[in-house]
Amino acid sequence: MEKIPVLIYDGDCGICLYWVNYWHKLTGDKVIYHPYQKVAADYPSIPLEEFRRSIQLITIDGAVYKGAEAVYVLLKDIPPYGLLNRLYKYAPGFSLLSESGYTFFSRHRGILRWMSYLFWGRQYEPPRYELISWLFIRLLGCIYLAAFVSLGVQITGLIGSNGILPLDLYLESVKQHFGNNAYLKVPTIFWFYLNDQLLILTCVAGSVISLLLIFNILLRTSLVVLYILYLSLYYAGQTFMTFQWDLLLLEVGFLALFLPARSNIIIWLYRWLAFRFMFLGGVVKIASRDPSWDNLTALTYHFETQPLPTPLAWYVHHLPEPFHITLAAVTLIIELIIPFLIFLPRKLRFIAAFFFMGFQLMIILTGNYNFFNLLTIAFCLFLFDDAAIKWLLPVILKKQISSPIPKPRLPVMNTIVATVITTVILTINSAQFWRIFTYSSMPIAANISYAFRPLQITSVYGPFSVMTTRRLEIIVEGSIDKKTWHEYKFKYKPDDLYRPPGWNIPHQPRLDWQMWFAALGDRSENPWFGNFLYQLLNDRKVVTQLLQKNPFPDHPPVFIRALVYEYHFADPETHKKTGQWWLRELTGMYYPVIKLKGDLQSTP
After folding, report:
1. What is the Cα–Cα distance from 311 to 288, expressed in whole angstroms?
2. What contacts 332, CB < 8 A, 6 or more positions away?
3. Rounded CA gap, 68 and 57, in Å?
4. Do residue 140 and residue 78 come from a single domain?
5. Which has the closest alpha carbon to 301: 323, 322, 281, 317?
6. 540 within a domain of the structure (yes/no)
7. Fewer C-beta within 10 Å: the chain N or C terminus?
8. Across the beta sheet with 32-35, what order do the strands follow?
9. 443 and 495 share a domain?
């Protein structure tokens, strides 16, 4: 008897060799593999017909397993296949279904070969993720770099001491509201010390450490520090950091903390994130009962009314309506159906990745969403494996990345940590899904979600659930005599009718974005807007530097107001004749005329 388990298979069966080769690479030298044509005589207790009918696994204690059960026992110690062995033993009907399937395919091996090649490829090997992880980390470093640099050039104007929402006042109010729990509810490094220089230094530090991450220097330390810094800035930024991409970057960055442990559990958490991100994007559209999604007219508005369109958005907007309707239908298919391919065999998962990445590229071409779509493309890389992308990288780089590397220290501890993280995230996600579909809460899961909420390790995503059918723009004007008014010009949002939409990816002009959201409501829903006007009246340079043009460069205005216009893309004929990209019509007053008189107040 062999001292280790022996798997005996049909050596004349091509598809048998295909799967035996895969299993051999999974189990290594822990199992011996023999064709029955060579060793059948050594096992006289097993009829020759049994060898021809199915594989046979002989364990150390002499037990013999065959068919589907032999496969499950063979792989029982290799995650995630061990689950199949437990299902075979304890799940009613699973063993019968497994053996029936095995018998069918053993009799129709041509079908099995066709399906294997179609779903797994002609040379299926145990998936590896060294190349994928290496590429992802580099992309994550670039995205972190873009996020920190983008915020750094505007942070003092947004939350500095003379900014729109001074951070010191915010932290003071948080401390008054939460008391000693404030540090836990709003975790940020700025509790310890705060000034404008530190705000800028934090962004600079984040940028420098992002470069370390890109060049694989102090990998684990860089990932930890970047997550902490961005979490601190997320809370410090207040209303200017309440965007889905900021939450997504925190979740992606948190999972990346555990990538160096090389656990496939983390790979699957990224795949789960890809599923949640895409699927919930479709669910919220259907759940909102927005008629524009019901009748597939959502994209007849979107390219014109989205926050910051690109130049291509003007052209796409003017395409025929059937094109927009088709595109809306494709969007719902990509978001509601394609995500389920993630949980199917390898080649189908690749199809999902191509759909998702193509979808994100389409969005990039028509809308300025900073690093949002780039980040989505980055974590969708985990839908592939190394074998799928190795042709993209130079041979020298592939050898360096894929060269044998030492096994991680404390592999059992790494697995335990990854399992705990998975349990926490799935528990929180279950509470989120339950709330979305039932409008109620799961008490235990909701409590766990509440406890971990300050860390923002997982969130709910779903952009554009309700479409904006009108483009309202707030135009801020100042005056010396209350008779002649001059417009403040923003860097990116539409105001000048002759200025075409621009490109600003991966930068996010956070004031311009908030102006778009402010126009969807009124000034009572956007208290920051009054602070913005107040700082303009005080001629705060850090605030006016956020604008493209300050019409009062030498002295601030005496009066200021905000009007609301409805904007439309100019039609091609008007654009050709006049050069205008936009048309607009005054709809009303957003903020009444005010002047600086001690405190911000309306004039009679």
Report:
1. 29
2. 282, 285, 286, 293, 296
3. 10
4. no
5. 317
6. yes
7. C
8. 32-35, 6-9, 56-58, 64-66
9. no
Residue at 314 is within a domain:
yes
Q: Is residue 382 part of a domain?
A: yes
For the stretch 144-167, pLDDT in tens is 999 999 999 999 999 999 999 999
Residue pLDDT, tens place only, 486-509: 999 999 999 999 999 999 999 999
Averaged over 163-180, what is the pLDDT? 96
| pLDDT tens-digit series, residues 64-105 | 999 999 999 999 998 888 899 999 999 999 999 999 999 999
Strand partners for 561: 477
Of 235, 227, 230, the C-alpha closest to 183 is 235
Q: Pick from 560, 603, 561, 557: which is nearest to 586 by CA?
A: 561
Q: Total domain count for the chain?
A: 4
Residues 266 and 389 in one domain: yes
Q: Is 227 found in the same domain as 259?
A: no
The whole-angstrom separation of Cα 74 and Cα 84 is: 11
How many CA atoms lie within 13 Å of 361's alpha carbon, on the beta-carbon side?
Answer: 7
In a domain? residue 402: no
pTM (2 decimals)?
Answer: 0.93
- Encoding tokens for residue 84? 């199949």
Q: Six-digit token pair at 424?
A: 């926490």
Q: Give yes or no: residues 169 and 308 share one domain.
A: no
Cα gap 394→172, rounded to integer Å: 53
- So what's the pLDDT on residue 404? 54
How many H helices and E strands in the chain? 29, 11
Q: Residues 38, 116: one domain?
A: yes
